[in-house]
Amino acid sequence: MSSTPPLTATASLRQLLDSLSKEQHRNQELLASLGFALRSFTNLGRFLELVPLLASRLVEAEGALLVVFHPDGRLWREQLHATPPAACAELVRQLASLEDRELLEASGEEAVAARLDGLIQRQLADRPLFGTSVVSRSRPRGRLYVFGAKTGFSWSEVHRRHVQLVADLTGVAIENDALVQEARRHERIDRQMSIGAEIQAQLLPDHCPLIEGVELAARCRPAFQVGGDYYDFIPTRPQLLGRRREQGRWALVMGDVMGKGVPAGLLMTLLRGMLRAEVLSGLPPDRILHDLNQLAQEDLAHSHRFVTLFYSDFDPRTRLLRYANAAHNPPLIWRRLRNAVDRLDAPGLLIGLQPEAHYGCEQIVLDPGDVLLYYTDGVTEAPGLNGERFDEERLIRALHGACRSGTGAQGILDQLFARLDRFVGVDRPLEDDASMVVLKVREEVMLPSLPT
Question: Which of 2, 13, 64, 76 has a beta carbon 3.0–4.6 Å from 55's, enabling a disulfide?
C-alpha cells in the first residue's frame, strides 16, 4: 500500500501562495460586486440586503447583521438585514422591538454602539463578534456586525479592514440615497413653486386698466417664485362697459402678507377673493377693511400670520380719492403745484390682529399732474451693499426726482426700480417681495382762477 509522499518546503509554500492568491481574487470579486451594486442600484433597500451577505463571505464568517439609523437617530426597522435569515430571525425581532428612546437617550456614538453591541452579543450566546460603525458625513448611520461559529476565534486585522471597507461603502450608499431623495424633494418643491408662481401671476393684474384722466403702472418683484405682495385694480361696478367703466369708481389696493413663499402666496390668493367680493358692496374704505378683517380672522389665526393692506377708491369724475389703511406703508403723493411729497395715512390695525378692529377713512382730491405711489415694505427695507436700508426718505427723494422729470407713470416706475437696483446691487436678489404701483393724474391746461 503506497503512501502520499511528504510535501517539501517549497511545495508547501507554493500551495500557501496559491491559496492566498485565490482568497485575494475571491475578495476582489466580492468587493467589485459590492461596488457594482453601489453604482447600479437605485433602490437603497436592495443594496442594503446584499451588505451582510457579502460581508460574511468576505471574512468567511458564519453570519452578518446590518443595523441602520434614521438621520434623527431612530432605528430604521425596515432596513434591518441579516444573514443567514433563519438563524438571525430572533435577533432581528429583538432589535426591531427595541424602543427608540433607548437609543436616543444614549449620549453619543460610543454609548449607542455599546448598547447595540451588548444586546447583539447576548443574543449570539458569546460567539465571536466584530462590529464597526457605518458613517455618513461624519455622522453615525448604523452598525455592521460579523460573527463566527466557534469560541476562541479572533478577527485578523485584514478581516477588520475588509468589514470596515464594506461599512464605508454602505455609508456612501446611504448618503447617495439621501442626496437623491433631497434632490427629488427639491424638484417637487420647484414644480409646486412654478405652479404657484403661475397661478399668482394670473391673479395679479397682467395689465393696468384704463381709468379716465389717469395713467397707471405696476410691478411686483417677488423675492421667491411665489410672494406675499398683493396689488389690485377692482371696478366697483363691474357690469359697466367701455367708457362708462373708465369713468366709474375704481378700488386701488396694495397689501402684504407677512412672510414669503408659498404660504404667504396662498393667503394672498384667499384674501384677494374675499376683498373682491367686499368691493361689490359699495361700502366706503373703512367699512371694507372692517368687514375683511372679520372675514379673514379665522384663516389668519390658523396660519399665525397677519396682513397689511391699504385700500382706496378713486372717482375719475371728481378726482376724489378715499382711503383707509390697515397698518400698511402709507402711499406717497407728489403734489405738482407745491412740488412736494406727502404721505397718505389713516389709523387702523393689521388685518387678522383682533376681531373688532376699527379703521379711519380719509379723502383727498388729486390735481392734474399729481403722482401717487403705492409700495410694500420690501422696497424701503431692501438692504444695500453697505448694510443700510433703502428707507422711506431715499424713496421720497427718488420719487421727487422721477416726477420732476416730466415722464409718465411707466417712466416713473422704471426710474424707481432702477434706483432700487442700483442701491441693492444689480446682481443681488431682494430679501423680500417688492411691489410698486404708480398713478399719475394727466396734466391739463390750468386756467388762472378769477377773483371773486
Answer: 64
DSSP tag of 431:
S
In a domain, 141, yes or no: yes
Same-domain check for residues 222 and 253: yes
Q: Is residue 6 part of a domain?
A: no
441: cell is 393724474
In a domain, 1, yes or no: no
Tens digit of pLDDT at every position of the chain (452 positions): 445 555 565 655 555 555 545 556 566 666 676 676 666 666 788 888 888 888 888 888 888 899 998 888 888 888 899 888 887 888 888 888 888 777 777 667 778 888 888 888 888 877 888 888 898 888 888 889 888 876 666 778 888 888 888 888 888 888 888 888 888 887 776 666 666 556 666 667 778 999 999 999 999 887 765 556 889 999 998 888 888 989 999 999 998 887 555 666 677 778 888 898 899 888 999 999 999 999 888 877 777 778 899 999 999 999 999 999 999 999 999 999 999 999 999 999 998 888 888 999 999 999 999 999 999 998 999 998 888 999 999 999 999 999 998 899 999 999 999 999 999 887 777 777 889 999 999 986 444 445 54
What 8-state DSSP symbol labels residue 351? Answer: B
| Residues 286 and 408 both lie in one domain | yes
Final residue before a domain boundary, out of 136, 160, 181:
181
Query: What CATH number is given to the structural domain containing 374?
Result: 3.60.40.10
Are residues 196 and 173 part of one domain?
Answer: no
Domain end, chosen from 181, 215, 234, is at 181
Is residue 103 included in any domain, yes or no?
yes
Is residue 367 domain-shared with residue 298, that is, in the same domain? yes
Q: Which residue range forms the structural domain that includes residue 208?
A: 191-441
Strands of the sheet containing 214-221, edge to edge, are 214-221, 434-441, 371-375, 332-335, 340-343
